[in-house]
TrEMBL record:
Pfam families: tRNA-synt_1b (PF00579). Gene3D superfamilies: HUPs, Tyrosyl-Transfer RNA Synthetase. Catalyzes the attachment of tryptophan to tRNA(Trp). It is an enzyme of class 6 (ligase). A motif ('HIGH' region) lies at residues 12-20. It comes from Candidatus Avimonoglobus intestinipullorum. InterPro entries: aa-tRNA-synth_I_CS, aa-tRNA-synth_Ic, Rossmann-like_a/b/a_fold, Trp-tRNA-ligase, Trp-tRNA-ligase_bac-type, Trp-tRNA_synthetase. Homodimer. Keywords: Aminoacyl-tRNA synthetase, ATP-binding, Cytoplasm, Ligase, Nucleotide-binding, Protein biosynthesis. GO terms for cellular component: cytosol. L-tryptophan binds at residue 135. This is Tryptophan--tRNA ligase. PROSITE patterns: AA_TRNA_LIGASE_I. It comes from the Bacteria.
Length: 332
């Protein structure tokens, strides 16, 4: 039987954080043996916020390296750069005409980004979820592993696909979102009621997978917690947001349950707990970093991966696009 299909991606808008890794990429690695996977680098999404062109080009290749370093096998899975498969932009245009202003204006990410970039509220920021729907639907994906913040975009993708199918028959597979057991929403280390974000202006708020190991340890040790001194997971208790976050991170990197981890620290202070979280995170990242460094200076290899990737991505996505063009009445 054919394997089910996964599609996902990350924007090359900054250095990958522990949140991106635990919320999304770690799951991609875990799922790759049971699914046929397509993972893209979402450069077209990233220009909804101003990017420096040289930086964007560099980050795109760094991200490809990071996908491989995290354990995604480029021989078994399709890895490609979004802008190299033109069908994404082409389908996005069509789907724009099947998406309502009202539903787009309810998107939390849109509202957040408008607040952060009041001087550049561009139309791309508004139609961002339509391009994301096109990404997913072109590959007829069954499953989309993402962090919690992206679930609203998966919902709108399902709505757009269902609306199109209702008019024209079964053109698109309706995809499901997929969240990790632990780490679906990693919080900022400095303001633990906010999500960890790679574009946070305070670098102490996030852990980058490419940070020095002693910087990672220092950031975890100085993470904002509370003054109670009790290592206990209390869902929904805002005063415990910092400790809840560190317990979640520890659970995600060790595979243990938060309650079991908390039990190890009964009667101990935050110092010992934070030191252990720092060590667990560093040890988890160490092999990723070693692989990443070994790929640096191997540009030809990366070029061959994304060139082959683009060819295959174009072939698959073009098939769906042609179906759509035929349904809406374009002359083929
Ligand atoms: P930006 O700050 O540029 O908006 P971001 O850090 O939010 O970026 P994205 O590229 O938007 O990252 O997201 C990539 C993937 O990582 C998505 O699947 C998203 O859900 C997931 N993700 C992002 N932040 C977190 C987080 N704090 N916890 C868990 N998952 C996250
Ligand atoms: N919006 C996503 C990135 C993204 C994506 C996708 C994720 C763009 N297209 C398709 C999954 C499937 C984000 O993480 N900010």
């Amino acid at each position: 039987m054919d394997k089910k299909i996964i599609f996902s991606g990350v924007q090359p808008s900054g250095n990958i954080t522990l949140g991106n890794y635990l919320g999304a990429i770690k799951n991609w690695v875990d799922l790759q043996k049971d699914y046929s996977c397509r993972y893209a680098i979402m450069d077209m999404h990233s220009i909804t916020v101003r990017q420096d062109p040289a930086q964007l080009r560099k980050r795109t290749l760094d991200l490809l390296k990071l996908y491989i370093a995290c354990g995604i096998d480029p021989e078994e899975n399709l890895l490609f750069i979004q802008s190299q498969a033109p069908a994404h932009a082409q389908l996005a245009w069509v789907l724009n005409c099947y998406t309502y202003m009202g539903e787009l204006s309810r998107m939390t990410q849109y509202k957040d980004k408008c607040a952060q970039h009041a001087d550049n509220i561009n139309a791309g920021l508004f139609t961002y979820p339509v391009l994301m729907a096109a990404d997913i639907l072109l590959y007829q994906a069954d499953l989309v592993p993402v962090g919690k913040d992206q679930m609203q975009h998966i919902e709108i993708t399902r709505d757009i696909a269902g609306r199109f199918n209702a008019l024209y028959g079964d053109v698109f597979k309706i995809p499901e979102g997929f969240l990790p057991k632990a780490g679906a929403k990693v919080m900022s280390l400095t303001e633990p009621t906010k999500k960890m974000s790679k574009s946070d202006e305070n670098p102490k708020a996030y852990i980058s997978i490419l940070d020095d190991f002693n910087v990672i340890a220092k950031k975890i040790k100085s993470a904002v917690t509370d003054s109670e001194g009790v290592v206990e997971y209390r869902e929904g208790d805002e005063t415990k947001a910092g400790i809840n976050n560190l317990l979640t991170i520890m659970a995600a990197v060790t595979g243990r349950a938060v309650e079991d981890i908390a039990a190890d620290y009964a009667g101990k202070g935050y110092g010992a707990f934070k030191a252990d979280v720092a060590e667990a995170v560093v040890e988890h990242i160490r092999p990723i970093r070693e692989k990443y460094d070994s790929l640096s200076g191997n540009k030809d290899y990366l070029v061959s991966i994304y060139t082959k990737g683009a060819e295959k991505a174009c072939a698959i996505s073009e098939r769906t696009l042609q179906k759509v063009y035929k349904k809406v009445g374009f002359v083929l």
